[in-house]
Amino acid sequence: MYIIAAIITFGILIIIHELGHFTLAKLNGIKVEEFAIGMGPQIFKINGKETIYSIRILPIGGYVKMLGDEGESTDPRAFNNKSPLRKLSVVLAGPVMNFILGIVLFAIIAAAKGYLLPVVDKVVPNQPAAIMGIKSGDKIVKVNRSKILTWEDFETEVYTSAGKPMDISYVRNGETRNVKVTPVKDAKDNRFIVGVYATAIQKPTIGQSVSYGFIETNSLVKQTFSFIGSAFKGKVSKNDFGGPVTIIKLSGAAAKAGILTLTAFGAYITVQLGIFNLLPIPALDGGYIFLFLFELITGKKVDQNKVGVINYVGFALLMGLMVLVTIKDILYPIKF
């Protein structure tokens, strides 16, 4: 039951992403030939007026197939005959929908159970924060140049610090104080910490919940790009990332823990999907975005047939990477 709930949740995230592409395609007068959830052979389909709506056997993605998106077409409703700006709007819509969904889900979580205020409750002795004089009751208001509104904001700054000294501003008894703290890496979680914890919970209004949704999504984006940077520098191990098997396992565990935990995990995954699809890799939205920005800036149209070949190669490489990551998930599963 929990695995089924996890698959359904992941499917909803994919539908939201593809719905973004589909909606903007329709608004821009583009003919959509197929709206597919999943990859591989079809297991179910409905023939619409001009669009096939299908479910495919592998629950690892989806796509919106538009007329003229993989070759040249003379039809005025073909994707290739639209302006670069219109094509860019269609491609951007998918990741944007993922981020919007993340904001909505985080807002729902905040409204349901509140969020932690950036007020220190516990200070671990002999850790960086304690050594530099931070005490229980101190309210953290700024780290470097970033304003701190929630405890998650503060944690994000610590996690993404890469161990560099942080200028922390906090309020004690109405007086603002400043201190420089250097995070250390926690051997257990392999994350940077300063040795402070919070427990004060804010029960937000609707407006504050939406604001929290934006804040949490932005924090997650910053953490993800920090991780990507560390990966390119070779500072991550095989235990720091997972693929489809890990996602399903974690989703099942989240479902078992309760609806809010599953919602939080869904928010996390949808933001990751948005970021992943923005990477400038052929066959991903980011590859198309790079291409259409080039067309928009230079005014030169790229041969769609060549684009199709590049995307096929990119797709094959992505599928190969997916297979390798899946094998890694099986042979070296992440323990949680």
Automatic annotation (TrEMBL):
Q: Which ranges does the record mark as transmembrane?
A: 90-112, 247-269, 275-297, 309-327
Q: What is its main location?
A: membrane
Q: How does it sit in the membrane?
A: Multi-pass membrane protein
The record's annotation in Gene3D superfamilies points to: 2.30.42.10
Needed co-factor(s) = Zn(2+)
The cross-references to InterPro entries, in alphabetical order and at most eight, read: PDZ (IPR001478), PDZ_sf (IPR036034), Pept_M50_Zn (IPR004387), Peptidase_M50 (IPR008915)
Q: Which SUPFAM superfamilies match?
A: PDZ domain-like (SSF50156)
EC category = hydrolase
CC annotations in GO: membrane
What are the alphabetically sorted keywords of the record?
Hydrolase, Membrane, Metal-binding, Metalloprotease, Protease, Transmembrane, Transmembrane helix, Zinc
Family membership noted in the UniProt record:
Belongs to the peptidase M50B family.
The protein's name:
Zinc metalloprotease
Question: Which species does the entry assign this protein to?
Answer: Clostridium muellerianum
Q: Which gene encodes it?
A: rseP
